[in-house]
Write the structure tokens for this entry.
Amino acid sequence: MHYSPLQKARYAYQPKLPRTLTLPIDTIVPVFGEATEPAADREDLHRLFPGTYGMPMVSFAEGRNTTISKKINIGVVLSGGQAPGGHNVIAGLYDAVKRANPDSEVYGFLGGPSGILENRTLRFTDEYIDEYRNTGGFDIIGSGRTKLESEQQYAVCEQVCKALNIDAILIIGGDDSNTNAAVLAEYFKSHDSKIAVIGAPKTIDGDLKNSSIEVSFGFDTATKTYSELIGNIERDANSAKKYWHFIKLMGRSASHIALECALQTQPTAALISEEVEINKTTLKEIVADLVEKVVYRSSKGMDFGVVLVPEGLIEFIPEMKILIAELNDLMAANADYFQTMTSFEEQSEWINRSLSKDSSYAFSSLPNNIQRQLLMDRDPHGNVQVSRIETEKLLIEMVEDSLKKLRSEGTYTGSFSSQSHFFGYEGRCAFPSNFDSDYCYSLGYNAFLLIASGLTGYISSISNLSAPADQWQAGGIPVTMMMNMEQRHGEKKPVIKKALVELDEKPFRTFAEHRDQWYKETCFTFPGAIQYYGPDEVCNRPTTTLILEQA
């Protein structure tokens, strides 16, 4: 097989570990802290997780470990969307397992959680693992979105693990996947099974974080990849001086990606969904603000700019949030009848009759193509597929309409030419940055130590991440500590709460302090491609968000 020079170099890269994890593996011991509790819904969560509730925080320190060399078999599953660094979580786990006992085995469940249910596995070897070290993607075993959430599924998982002599499962996934990992751990414990379940925090969206999980893996690489592209477009915009570029970025539930990319590239404007929701900013007001920026820059001879738009923005706009909720309920209750309508005109007429007055007005005011996207096939939960709504094009069209009106009134004489972009898949499987390579390898190595310590229902945690890697802290967080109860499909369910952009914290405040200058002047910055070699401030720098949070 032919490899590029960069591939060869990355295969040879040795990820850095926290100082504690560099000790001989039989001299690393767990240290247990105080018992933990979630911030809310304690009674409900205690009732649902009697076996794993209230467990202590765990850290690791130097000491004599006489049991770590016991033979153990571990199964790994990749769950959900891809994120750079997933391969290194598995490589870190594998290396720790083999360092403790070369006779221990690591198995990969193929195609995500369904690989457990269908008993489709691959036994890892040195040669196989070496093909994937420090590379992007999840192609080492594939991923999937099957949810493990029923007693029947848990029973099958137990049967498959016992048949393979698997002692523990590492589930690498986001908030839903780690919630499912906690439920599976509780099931095994309540059924007197010795199979442990440990999680690893993954999502490029950055919304799996809290006081104990500082960042989910993949966020660093994805935002640096997008910021390179945004910087390239900014350079082009500043060269041609005739286009407004509207760029939609990943992030349905939270705007961490848009905020980080704004901090890295200083665009003309960036919308933050959480601010829109708190201020109850309407779509009309968003457009009016963008028009004001276009007109101001045009008056200064700058008929160009770059606008960042979070993928999930439309769900945070008050009238659109209500409209989407009504559409979801309406479509779910009348799915069969809706399928009998053969034309968009017929569908649109029925929708307008069936919606509330305000939502009908909101729906009718949207461009025809956006109306069609709102009525497209639903996701597996019966909801609008927000990622397929071209919010960036909606904003362009509405800004254009407003500018035409101003032009007809003689109050705007500039030129507005637009380009739209969506950066999504470009960042999910990129070559991991040094940060993600190191962080993910540490998460996997650390996960083995949690398993070897006889723990279950924990998520692998590496903290103090804005410091050099040798100063990072390794440990484990009980998943129940991060949970609350939320309404899902008509009933209360335990979930890990998604972390949204906090408007009173330093990353957003830094953005808010500078954004007026960014649109009144042209302040673009150009991060360039991810660097793997060179000074620490170039190749090992964490995200701006992390630096500001831990300053």
Notes: The CA atoms of residues 38 and 481 lie 4 Å apart. The radius of gyration is 25 Å. The chain has a mean pLDDT of 95. The chain has three domains: 24-218+432-488, 225-311+390-427+499-551, 315-387.
